[in-house]
Design goal:
The complex is a heterotrimer. Chain A is mostly helical. Chain A has 12 helices and 1 strand. In chain A, α6 packs antiparallel against α8. By secondary structure, chain B is an alpha/beta fold. Chain B contains 9 helices and 10 strands. In chain B, the strands form 2 sheets. Chain B has a 6-stranded mixed beta sheet, with helices on both faces. In chain B, strands 2-1-4-5 form a 4-stranded antiparallel beta sheet, covered by helices on one side. The longest helix of chain B is centred in the C-terminal third of the chain and has 18 residues. Chain B is globular, with a radius of gyration of 19 Å. The termini of chain B are far apart. Chain C has a 6-stranded mixed beta sheet, with helices on both faces. In chain C, strands 1, 2, 4, 5 and 6 form a 5-stranded antiparallel beta sheet that branches. Classes of the chains: A mainly alpha, B alpha/beta, C alpha/beta. Chains in contact: A-B, A-C, B-C. β1 of chain A pairs antiparallel with β2 of chain C.
Chain lengths: 312, 266, 278
């Protein structure tokens, strides 16, 4: 209760009233109402919406790559007449040294990028979340052991470890993903641990303890949901870095192997023609830039919505 | 179940110590009291008096260094078993901190039922809401959609949903406005009579303790100062200087007052 | 009648939020002489926002308007930033609820008092030091020299709040605004702190605005009491006449407290009449 609100805000109606109801009638209505409030806060940030748009575009591009791409991403045209053509009406982004349409390759490359991003998120987030919450909640020697392990992983330079990994297992996009994933979970564990230590001593955790809840139940049902939002924000913000690392590995020839249309590898090929045929490197480079930016903007927007400390 | 006892809760020479060496803190020193079934017992004192520590030691949130805590004739085990939590429940001070911010009222109330494998959750949740004077319309709200008093009612409903015999109340009204405090005190008074509950109430407010409890223990620096009855307190029959000072202070500010009792230098 | 120290007429504090405009203070008027005025109300009544608005400490989305807001004849609404700065902390001071949050954790208490003094009075370091020590003595610190060199985390809540009062009174202000100055303290300690505050205020002839949720405390400490509800003053009365309160809200607030002296059961609760908020 902070004073009496003036009747200036118009009364919500219909669907909105249902979503914003102070007295939801079911679990679903309560949950959707919360989601709607989050979406309203999110959509008020235009840059965040742009970020979301870019990410959605990437997803659509990956799904409908076969439909959108006018040419094959792998098979080239006539090497004598269609090599290294500048952007034109026929080849929107020009062609590369194998006479392949760069536009089609960029479109198909989105699949690889998305594959990397999703897989890294699916591997690294749960590991980080579990290690962090268990470590933070239990404390004591469990915490010490888990955090020292985290420190060890944190001490590896990401790209170098990925290099070593790929050197040992052989180059390939899958190995690159595993390498990136095992080097990206430690910061998540750190965040989850810090959040857990704040939550651990709060009354609502003491209350559920006093109901006789088991430790796994407390961690999974009560601690994890509170750590999740800040982690989602962090993972989204890290996506740009992950894409860049994957592209970096591709650039070094250790990630996706030719003729896969991986953006980093495409930039690498373009390096030889950088002065005279700039589009070969620039087009996939722009794609990397735009998608990284998109994830960053989305992450910023999500932070404003999900992180109660940053929210006003 | 063989032993016949006349105490619901019996605390014998309870001592709680945190840390060792220079960092050693004696949070509770040699505290003893007992509470009969259906009675309400108050622990009064200022911050650092050890009143909350005693409460937390009973339910297992603080370690028992030495001494015995006996509930229904059985000494408690560490860690406490599920049966203990069906007998003893707790209500916390800050209603803003004791409810999970991402859980609806429904989730908060169904959790204890799920943990103890209770059936008929739907009916029991609605009944618990009714008991604390809230309608079914509150069931799917999040804590941020509730006022402080409503939150505290939910916390009480959560503590009651397993049908415990003992309720530990840790300053249940000190975070609330005076008018809301009156409502919660009335509710607690009423629930005790209707459900035959036993209360242990911790508070810094002498008037609140005297209102809700029949007997009380005044505590200071981890030690019991004086055990007395609320009726005696009302008639001003406090033998101890410190208790007298607490009574003075609870009456409001007095311009020409006797020297306040100073705490001994730590 | 002498000129009032503080003259407030139709004070309003509005917060422009996404969800609409919330008016926390809705037309508060009062005059203050060199006396002790209490402002009582429950959370959300606008009592704290009233105190903050006088000092110009309303947090960002807030907007303060008033027909008149004058301190000792100076219009606080049109005064320059510089004038306000010299007034604030110089002639008007504020003591907040929790000393833990209002004292700078990385400076000793003595340094903070010196800084507060030298920000408003031209004085040498030695003079300021003497003044600070005298102030610490005035708030009944047993060993001012020792407390002078302590950091805020090294003192108890009661000592911290006394240090805070020393810091706020070192510039000899004419008006002190105390917002729940003893709510974070134990009862016996808070009585001690209030006694010190009481002495200093009457000795120096200051005006005092004492903001609190505790009707019993305010009425026993102050000369005059404003009772606030939903951003308005619903009743103004002499503290000694509290028993004759007319407004049902004031009456309800008084009755709903459990009393040591008599055992009323169930406690009368407050039925909030929507008309009070109009």
């Amino acid at each position: 209760m902070t004073g009496a609100p003036l009747p200036l805000a118009s009364e919500p109606s219909g669907m909105r009233a249902w979503l914003l109801s102070a007295e939801p009638h079911s679990r679903w209505q309560a949950r959707l109402g919360r989601f709607y409030l989050g979406w309203r806060a999110f959509s008020r940030n235009p840059l965040a919406v742009v970020g979301l748009g870019i990410v959605l575009l990437l997803i659509l591009m990956a799904i409908f790559a076969d439909v959108i791409a006018p040419y094959s991403p792998v098979a080239g045209g006539d090497l004598r007449t269609q090599r290294l053509l500048p952007p034109s009406e026929t080849y929107w982004f020009g062609t590369d040294d194998q006479a392949r349409d760069i536009f089609s390759r960029v479109i198909h490359g989105s699949r690889i990028t998305l594959f990397v991003v999703v897989l890294v998120a699916l591997i690294a987030t749960p590991i980080g979340l579990l290690v962090g919450t268990v470590s933070g909640y239990l404390g004591g020697w469990v915490d010490t052991v888990l955090m020292r392990i985290t420190d060890i992983f944190l001490a590896f330079p990401r790209l170098i470890l990925a290099l070593a990994f790929v050197a040992a297992l052989g180059p390939g996009i899958e190995n690159a993903i595993i390498a990136i994933a095992i080097t990206s979970w430690p910061p998540y564990a750190r965040i989850a641990r810090a959040e857990t230590m704040m939550i651990r001593n709060s009354d609502f955790i003491a209350a559920v303890k006093l109901q006789g809840a088991s430790t796994p139940r407390i961690i999974l049902g009560h601690v994890v949901p509170l750590c999740l939002s800040s982690l989602i924000v962090r993972v989204t913000l890290d996506m740009a870095g992950i894409i860049l690392t994957a592209a970096g590995l591709g650039f070094l020839g250790l990630g996706a192997q030719p003729p896969m249309p991986e953006w980093g590898a495409m930039v690498a090929t373009g390096r030889n023609y950088l002065i005279d045929q700039w589009w070969v490197a620039a087009m996939p480079g722009i794609a990397i830039f735009v998608v990284s930016l998109g994830f960053n903007l989305l992450g910023d927007g999500l932070r404003d919505v999900l992180d109660p400390k940053a929210a006003k | 179940m063989g032993a016949v006892t006349d105490s619901m809760i019996d605390i014998q020479n309870l001592q709680v110590v945190y840390g060792t060496g220079r960092l050693r803190v004696d949070a509770a020193k040699n505290v003893s009291f007992h509470v009969e079934p259906g009675a309400a017992y108050g622990l009064v004192g200022e911050s650092g008096s050890g009143k909350s520590t005693v409460l937390r030691a009973i339910c297992g949130l603080a370690p028992i260094t030495s001494g015995r805590v006996v509930v229904e004739g059985k000494e408690v085990t560490s860690p406490r078993g599920k049966a203990f939590y069906r007998t003893v429940q707790m209500v916390f001070q800050d209603p803003y901190a004791s409810l999970h911010p991402r859980h609806t009222v429904d989730r908060t109330l169904s959790e204890p039922l799920a943990i103890h494998g209770e059936k008929d959750a739907e009916a029991r949740i609605l009944q618990a809401l009714r008991e604390v004077g809230l309608g079914p319309s509150f069931r799917f709200r999040y804590p941020h959609q509730l006022s402080g008093g409503q939150r505290q009612r939910i916390a009480i409903a959560r503590a009651l949903i397993l049908r415990p015999k003992v309720l530990l109340l840790d300053e249940p009204t000190s975070a609330l406005d005076a008018s809301v405090q009156a409502e919660i005190l009335n509710l607690l008074d009423d629930l005790r009579r209707r459900l035959g509950l036993t209360y242990i109430l911790v508070s810094h407010d002498l008037a609140v303790v005297a209102h809700l409890c029949e007997r009380l223990l005044v505590m200071r620096n981890g030690e019991a100062v004086e055990e007395t009855a609320s009726a005696a307190l009302r008639s001003g029959a406090a033998s101890n200087d410190y208790t007298q000072a607490l009574i003075q202070a609870s009456q409001g500010f007095t311009r020409v007052a006797p020297q306040p009792v100073r705490a001994p230098a730590a | 009648m002498t000129k009032p120290l503080l003259d407030v007429e139709d004070l309003r504090v509005r917060f422009h939020l996404r969800t609409g405009i919330v008016e926390a203070v809705r037309g508060v008027s009062f005059q203050l002489g060199r006396e002790r005025l209490g402002i009582v109300g429950e959370s959300g009544s606008g009592k704290s926002q009233t105190g903050r608005a006088i000092l110009g400490l309303t947090p960002p989305p807030g907007e303060v308007t008033a027909k008149r807001l004058a301190f000792d004849g100076i219009n606080l609404q049109t005064a320059s930033k510089r004038t306000l700065r010299t007034l604030r902390g110089g002639r008007i001071s504020m003591v907040m609820q929790d000393p833990k949050y209002s004292l700078n954790p990385v400076m000793t208490i003595g340094e903070q008092i010196i800084e507060a003094y030298r920000a408003h009075v031209r004085a040498s370091k030695a003079e300021a030091r003497d003044k600070a020590l005298a102030m610490l003595e005035a708030v009944k610190m047993r060993d001012p020299g020792r407390v002078f060199a302590l950091y805020p985390h090294e003192v108890s809540g009661g000592m911290g709040q006394r240090a805070m009062i020393a810091m706020m009174l070192v510039t000899d202000p004419d008006l002190l605004i105390a917002d729940e100055p003893t709510s974070a303290l134990d009862v016996t300690v808070s009585m001690e702190v209030l006694r010190i505050l009481d002495e200093l205020v009457s000795e120096r002839g200051m005006g005092l605005i004492f903001i609190s949720h505790d009707l019993k405390l305010v009425s026993s400490f102050c000369d005059r009491v404003l009772v606030m509800y939903a951003g308005r003053v619903v009743e103004e009365l002499e503290a000694k006449n509290l028993r004759e309160a007319k407004h049902p809200y004031t009456q309800g607030l008084m009755r709903c407290l459990p009393m040591l002296a008599d055992d009323v059961r169930p406690l009368p609760t407050l039925n909030r009449d929507p008309a009070w908020a109009l």
